[in-house]
Structures are given as C-alpha cells and as structure tokens.
Amino acid sequence: MTRSSKKGPYVDDRLLKKIEGKKPIETGVIKTWSRACVISPEMIGFNFGVHNGKTHLEVLVSEDMVGHRLGEFSPTKKFIKHGGKMQKEMEQKKKEGEIASAQAAKAPAEAVAKK
Asked: Which of 5, 49, 62, 90 is the residue whose CA sits 20 to 30 A from 104?
C-alpha cells in the first residue's frame, strides 16, 4: 500500500542534512539504515551505503531511481542457486565442453608456431 498523496513522499531528514551543500563527486559513501526513504532528485549522483541487515551495499543514485525507495536497490536475501545432483552434472559437462574447446583452439595455434 502506498503512502497518502496528501502526506507526500517519506524522505529522511537526517539523510537530506548529510547531503545538503555537498557535491556528489567529492562525497564518499553515505551510510544509511533508512531503507524506506524515497529517493528525491537532490540525491542524484550520490553514493549511499544502504544497510541490508548485515552489511552496507553501495547504491549509486541515478535519474531512473527517483521515486523508488533506497531499500529496493539493496537486497536482503542472497540467492545461491537452484539444483542439486542434476544441476552439478550439467555444470560439470559445461566445464568439460569449455576445456575441450579451449584445447581445440590452442592446438592450431601451436601448429602455426612450430612452422
């Protein structure tokens, strides 16, 4: 559910004070725990360290991000991968194929070098 339009977007005051009067190029990473803060046009170009529950992930704010929340660009869950035994077999075949193609590419180069 979105915030009421009469209230306006939620922008953290402390975050605005941190970027007030500063240039995006000169400022380093600005750490914040405010994931619910809406990105405003004043934040464009700044590099924020948004907390994901464990660490601060760097988020460089661009024009396309205005109106979104900071937390959208700092995922809290880490995706490993799907699969199991069958997935491992497929990855092994893929590696073997890459090795075979690399060796095939290397063989003509060695033949040319010997001449």
From this structure: 90
